[in-house]
Write a structure and sequence with these properties.
alpha/beta; single chain; 263 residues; 9 strands
Length: 263
């Protein structure tokens, strides 16, 4: 039996009850384009294949798992296995027809955040994403202004997606058991952005800089980008902390900078 590799952050799901609950949350149907990231030993792969009528794309980095998956699912003629690093994989290459992609995965803790940012590049072709992540990461993804977990990750992801915390998964559902709890999150890319940043890169810089030192005020963290007078002109208190601002306010700051620069 293939052993979990620490360098890949592998923890294989084995709890049948949790697997069933995840699949029911996803509710895949025949004809839908489902893509699983990091199938591991195929614990989720099997019920996903059953639900989709046998069609599934999987992206797996660990080359030793590829023959295990091919052997286990040798009857699944429409299972397409892609040996690749999801962090650099072109998910657009899988969008070969008009069907929106539905992404699923038990993501290794060490790559979950950069991978989600990578996937945002394909947001216009994605219907939804269901991921198993470290519970703390899911809390950050779904946090609201004023929450302790609220910060850059939640703001950037919620700008692009609706995020919903579905349920918690205990360590015992995995082999080997991780030292932390996990949780399932649903991310639905927004068809229309509620607030539009004129320059998305500037928006990203504002958010990152505002949370540079959480205990400091906007005045201190953003002093190299924007003045107190500029903040006050758009109705933002320079003495406030970043965690008290909503996404719209961060967009307004970024747009004020764009306007000031004439961009």
């Amino acid at each position: 039996m293939h052993k979990a590799r620490k360098r890949f952050g592998q923890n294989f799901l084995h709890d049948a009850g949790i697997i069933d609950r995840i699949v029911k949350s996803i509710a895949p149907k025949p004809g839908q384009h489902v893509i699983e990231i990091g199938p591991g030993h195929g614990a989720l792969t099997e019920p996903l294949l059953d639900a989709t009528g046998g069609e599934l794309d999987v992206v797996e980095l660990d080359r030793d798992l590829i023959p295990i998956l091919r052997t286990k699912f040798f009857r699944a003629e429409k299972l397409r296995i892609h040996e690749a690093d999801a962090l650099s994989f072109d998910f657009g290459s899988l969008a070969t027809d008009e069907r929106p992609m539905r992404l699923v995965g038990n993501l290794p803790y060490n790559i979950s955040t950069p991978l989600m940012f990578h996937l945002l590049n394909y947001a216009d072709r994605i219907h939804d994403m269901h991921f198993m992540l470290q519970k703390e990461v899911v809390q950050r993804l779904c946090a609201a202004p004023g929450d302790n977990a609220y910060g850059r990750l939640g703001i950037m992801m919620q700008y692009h997606c609706e995020a919903r915390y579905l349920f918690t998964v205990p360590p015992g559902a995995f082999t080997p058991a991780p030292k932390v709890e996990s949780a399932i999150v649903r991310l639905n890319p927004r068809k229309t952005l509620p607030f539009v940043a004129k320059d998305p890169k500037k928006f990203e810089i504002v958010v990152r800089t505002a949370f540079g030192q959480r205990r400091k005020t906007l005045r201190n963290n953003l002093k190299t980008l924007i003045s107190d007078a500029q903040l006050e002109a758009i109705g933002i208190n320079p003495g406030a902390r970043a965690e008290t601002l909503g996404i719209e306010q961060f967009v307004n700051i970024a747009n004020a900078l764009s306007d000031a620069e004439g961009s």
